Predict the structure.
Amino acid sequence: MTTPKIRSATPADIAHLVAWNTAMAWETEAKRLDPAVLERGVAAVLDEPRRGFYLVAECDGLAVGSLLVTYEWSDWRCGDFWWIQSVYIAPEARRRGVFRALYADVAERARAAGAVGLRLYVETENQRAQATYTGLGMERCHYLMYEASPL
């Protein structure tokens, strides 16, 4: 497998992004997503850059993974945190530097845009992902996440 090439997602990637989000939700939470809602959600990001953006990793000309970046304004720091979400790497491409390449691309874009930091959340039991993030220099923060859904 060659070094991953990272690019911005386009509407031509919607089918992959929907499939990968579906797989990620099942693998991490045993949650089934509504494909129609998910497709509209992915398309909405591509249609409105203020919502964020997707990056796609390719190896040997084939799309093998992606992630979503969204924004959170920090009044304390007067800048945006970039949230890394919806990470998925195809099983055959895992442990081959694909996420590392995606992360490096996001970090460079964030620096160039003046973001104040990167954040992500991870399942509490996903020790492999936590080790990956720590290995990239990320640190566990002291916040817990709460949710009220649906509203």
User: Anything to note?
Assistant: The chain has four helices and five strands. The two ends are 45 Å apart (CA to CA). The domain at 5-135 is CATH 3.40.630.30 (Aminopeptidase).
